Amino acid sequence: MLKGVEAKGGLSKTKVYEEAAKALFTKEPANMKLLVVVDKLLTAFDAPPCTYVYIDRSMQDHGLFQAICRTNRLDGEDKDFGYIVAYKGLFKKVENAIAVYTSELDHSDDGPAPDVLLKDRLKKGKERLDQALERIFLLCERVEPPKGELEYIHFFCGNTEIASDLKEREPQRAALYKATAGLLRENANIADEMDAAGYNNAHVARIKKHVEHYLNARDTVRLGSNESLDLKAYEADMRHLIDTFQSR
Hints:
The chain is mostly helical and 248 residues long.
């Protein structure tokens, strides 16, 4: 791991490597998707893109709470909670750690409640997927039937040979790209656990059809407007998903 790393600035090779890895994880998450640590980064480490924490050691009390709070920073409007994956049966200890923390919070001031809440991942995933579907349904509701390629191009691009038409409909296209990315992300989060999330076979088939439809519609609009999708607008795991779908 240290091959090619040089000590500099009074730092050892190991420290130089660690600082570079942390910088990639926090500032270029697409280039550092997974960071494995032992007894490090539990405090004084701010990484808003961090969405998942995997815990494979016994922890409790403040140490456990500090560890799970590595996911508690918002990172744009697409991240409003983090995932905790514990392999040591820590769920009850997590609950206890959060209970101790929230009991000491000041609830006297006006504003949002400062409580930390644990939520069922699949229940929340289903809710978010349903919301993503509803958003894109509403966005595309005014596309003329039969909602084929020409109808999507006309609604989101206008006359593609008229620059003012393309410019006027640019916000609509941006909304379509964002809504499609959100749908892909929420579907991917629970795609392997649709039954457990509460969907029956008919629902799963219908959702799969919707995802394919809107993915094709997005690509059609992109081609019609001669635009390239700026993947920097999306979080690292979403960029990976989009790249995967585009390469198929």
